[in-house]
């Protein structure tokens, strides 16, 4: 009797893993549904506004275009990572993916299905963005050191 009360057993651990997987998968699904709506609304509004630009504005736009194209590539990498981890392409396309900060060849953001979500960190190697971390906590210092992440993106405790 006393033995059965010590910590989690194999069944409880397996059930916890299944529950977490379902919550994350559902989170990706809802996040993607909302992102698809936001993308369509953004496309409509950007096509409706046209203004003359100066040379200085052109330089700013070139920088912004590079950032925007990186942002699109980052979002595509996050969606591909979701499919690689077992969610369908349709569910992945419905995820809401937000790129918060890009520093050099690294970017951090959030992904959600509208109800639940997680943070992600991507790294660009030879021009290709790939997810190096997804979770609800910060990654450990090993990942931070390996990819040269900003100090506040990872935990120094583990």
Describe the structure in brief.
The chain has helices at 10-48, 55-84, 89-93, 141-147; strands at 96-103, 106-112, 117-125, 128-135. Strand 2 and strand 3 (117-125) form a beta hairpin.
Descriptive account of the structure:
This protein is an alpha+beta fold. The chain has one domain. Helices cover 51% and strands 20% of the residues. It has 4 helices and 4 strands. It has a 4-stranded antiparallel sheet with strand order 1-2-3-4. The longest helix has 39 residues. It is globular, with a radius of gyration of 19 Å. 25% of the residues are buried.
List the helices and strands and how they pair.
Layout (H helix, E strand, L loop, with lengths): L9 H39 L6 H30 L4 H5 L2 E8 L2 E7 L4 E9 L2 E8 L5 H7 L11
Antiparallel strand pairs: 1-2, 2-3, 3-4
**Largest sheet descriptor:** 4 strands, antiparallel
Number of strands: 4
Fraction in beta strands: 15-25%
- Count the domains: 1
Poorly predicted runs are: 41-65
- How large is the count of helical segments? 4
Order of the strands making up the biggest sheet: 1-2-3-4
Which features would summarize this protein structure in a list?
single chain; alpha+beta
């Amino acid at each position: 009797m006393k033995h059965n009360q010590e910590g989690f057993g194999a069944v409880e651990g397996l059930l916890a893993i299944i529950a977490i997987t379902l919550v994350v998968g559902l989170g990706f699904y809802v996040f993607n549904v909302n992102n698809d709506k936001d993308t369509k609304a953004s496309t409509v509004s950007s096509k409706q506004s046209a203004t003359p630009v100066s040379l200085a504005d052109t330089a700013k736009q070139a920088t912004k275009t590079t950032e925007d194209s990186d942002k699109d590539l980052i979002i595509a990498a996050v969606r591909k990572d979701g499919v690689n981890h077992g969610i369908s392409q349709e569910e992945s396309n419905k995820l809401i993916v937000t790129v918060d900060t890009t520093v050099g060849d690294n970017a951090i953001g959030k992904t959600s299905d509208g109800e639940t979500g997680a943070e992600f960190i991507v790294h660009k190697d030879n021009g290709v963005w790939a997810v190096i971390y997804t979770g609800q906590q910060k990654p450990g210092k090993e990942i931070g050191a390996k990819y040269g992440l900003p100090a506040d993106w990872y935990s120094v405790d583990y």
